[in-house]
Specification:
about 375 residues, alpha/beta, five-stranded mixed β-sheet, 12 helices, 15 strands, about 30% strand
Length: about 375
């Protein structure tokens, strides 16, 4: 298979428009028309990872953290990023990254962390806002089923764990076909009344182009009428962090010791124990301290993330247990997400997780 087929499958799981504004997820280096010889999965791209890809004859490296965050004015090998870029190009290696789009995706990074801990009843901690649209269109009654199906197939109608969601209202549409038209119904030059169905459905804004194309292709009219409205609704299936519950309450110290072992953490930093039982857990992989207010507001007993600022430990005091387990440690299992996506769809492709520990932080 070609590399672009693998990239497409990854983007279907975590579409690039889900990434945050500061990010640079997606294709970093290379040409995706090449045949894939193997995929090497990693959290970070380093020279050692590129060397491993060369040694294992893998021409695709898939990382969580993007290698390239800013533009280049020159490529001279002055730092590890430039050296990785030059080496990857020299050896025809494609580098592709899934960062905050994977953080924000349903069943993404934070769901993987929660699964390792054994959390249940998961919800997004900070859902994305202003990213949904409502589509309204008007279709002859006998074609309504066909148009609805085309819209659903294009990505419309998903609300939570429900799909094929729409609202339908019967009414009458009017028009007069002018010269040069080929009306589906009615006669040119004559006023016409047609029994129609008003179809309303919801879609992510980034699927707008695909949905409109599907609508035009399925609609019987030469000039389909449709409206797109921006929605202020939160998209509760997409966003930052997750919150959920443990099957049984746990002692604070025992809970953190269990997390320390699960994620092979060299040192768990945490706020003062308050004698509480841990039942409701909020978390965010990587640098997630910005979600502490959300964790507190939802009544979580503990908030786990990769990095916490010094003064956050003071500010939140005894209101919530704050635990910092390391950026690398919190996101290390991202590779397992990549592996399951690729192996399910491309079972014959050689896929492996890097043997390189790319964590730049060491514990003495």
């Amino acid at each position: 298979m070609k590399i672009k087929e693998i990239v497409s499958a990854l983007e279907m799981f975590a579409p690039l428009p889900l990434q945050d504004g500061f990010d640079n997820a997606g294709l970093q280096i290379g040409l995706t028309d090449a045949e894939a010889t193997g995929a090497l999965l990693c959290l970070d791209v380093t020279e050692a990872v590129i060397d491993e890809a060369i040694e294992k004859s893998c021409n695709l490296v898939i990382s969580h953290h993007p290698l390239v965050f800013k533009g280049f004015k020159s490529l001279t090998g002055r730092d590890y990023v430039e050296r990785c870029v030059m080496k990857a190009i020299k050896h025809d290696i494609v580098v592709f990254s899934m960062h905050t789009n994977l953080d924000n995706a349903p069943q993404g990074v934070n769901y993987k962390i929660a699964g390792k801990i054994g959390m249940q009843n998961l919800q997004i901690l900070e859902p994305k806002e202003d990213v949904l649209l409502k589509l309204v269109t008007f279709v002859p009654q006998e074609k309504a089923d066909d148009v609805r199906k085309a819209l659903f197939d294009a990505g419309c109608g998903c609300i939570g764990n429900y799909d094929a969601c729409s609202y339908n209202l019967e009414g009458r549409g009017t028009f007069r076909a002018g010269e040069g038209t080929h009306p589906y119904c009615g006669t040119k030059g004559e006023f016409h009344v047609e029994p129609e169905v008003r179809i309303e459905t919801i879609l992510p804004a980034f699927r707008k182009e695909r949905v409109v194309k599907a609508l035009v292709a399925a609609h019987p009219y030469e000039e389909p009428a449709y409206d797109l409205y921006p929605l202020r609704n939160s998209w509760n299936q997409v966003g930052s962090g997750v919150v959920g519950e443990l099957p049984e309450p746990e002692d604070e110290r025992n809970f953190l010791l269990r997390v320390k072992e699960l994620f092979n953490v060299g040192c768990v930093k945490h706020s003062r124990f308050g004698g509480r039982k841990i039942r409701k857990v909020a978390l965010c992989g990587g640098a997630g301290a910005f979600l502490l207010p959300r964790a507190l507001a939802c009544g979580a007993d503990v908030f786990i993330t990769g990095e916490v600022k010094y003064h956050d430990y003071f500010f939140y005091e005894d209101r919530i247990l704050v635990a910092e387990i390391g950026h690398y440690e919190s996101e290390q299992y991202t590779q397992e997400i990549f592996y399951s996506i690729i192996k399910d769809l491309f079972p014959v492709l050689k896929v492996g997780m890097t043997s390189v520990n790319t964590n730049p932080i060491n514990y003495l």
